[in-house]
Amino acid sequence: MAIINFLVSYSLPIIMAVITILTVYYLLRRLALKRVSYTRYFAQSGVFEGDFAELIEEISNNSFMPLFFIDVESFLPSELALAGYERGKRPMQQFISRFNIAPFTKIKRTIQVECIKRGDYKIETVSLRFLHTQIYIESRARLYVYPMALEQAEKDPLQSDAQSLFLSERKIIYDPFSFSGIRDYRRGDPFKSINFKATAKNMSLMVNTREFISVRNFMVYIDFHVKTGDAKPDSYNEMMERAMSWSADLLQKAIRSGCSAGFAANCRNSSGDRFINYPMGAGFNHYSEVLTEMAKIRLTAGNSLVSVITQDLNKLKNAEIFIYTPYPEQEFGGCLEVFRAMGNMVSIIELR
Questions:
Q1: Taking the model in full, what pTM does it have?
Q2: What CATH architecture applies to the domain 157-169+215-350?
Q3: Integer distance in angstroms from the first to the last C-alpha of the chain?
Q4: Closest by alpha carbon to 72, among 115, 109, 122, 24?
């Protein structure tokens, strides 16, 4: 009996203290939740269709209270498949992250996302839930999924030497893979140009001479137009996605070869524009900018392709122009004749 009285006399204050602490903890839950900061972002600004991106979550507890079982709930497009989550048929997928955070602590979490479909993906808000209390906060993140770069079945246009058959006013560059002869060394010749075999034979420095080639310029157009009165063909979306994949591959090869490339299309995009006309440029930064514009494309026509091409009539000279269109027989308002008269080579690729 004495033992029971002892336990009761000492356990009762402990139980009351625990109840008091839990009550205060519960009453302060909303205040504590407001002291939580949460951000998320993608580690990459853009990736190719079929690749993986990393979604980074960062949450901080800026209060003196330890916080347990904080659920961060958000909805992501199903085209961004989360690792470990079953992808359903709904356009959005629910995603919940659970955190336990010590006072004045920051947690960073990385989530793998498979990018299944090309597009411009934006996520806006999340809800934080803690002890039956829920608040909404803005946490914006954006990811561009570029079209998959696919090679055409036809001969690679970059391997074509048709452009070398006529005189060109384009700038010329040194071709390190050609060979035109051997000559005496001159001050300023690079060390790698020395021909050691000829040098040993002539007992004086001899260097290889190289030929020069024209810088090649590429311009790609995609025609999203559907004839007036016609319904979109069942294969329209697949056809246009394929055209973008071919264009991405062609532009990638051009940039890697040191050429200049540009892209234009008469489509609408996620920014509300009715066409895209990205000027010719070189380098992988330029290529990334073009891919970003392609990620924003919506599969519907805006302006006519003729109105887009007309903007370049007096700008393109001695370029290789590729037009992807479902209607290869159209005249394009006489623009093709003007292009050819200015020394451009024009290729029409039928989409079907």
A1: 0.76
A2: 3-Layer(aba) Sandwich (3.40)
A3: 93
A4: 109
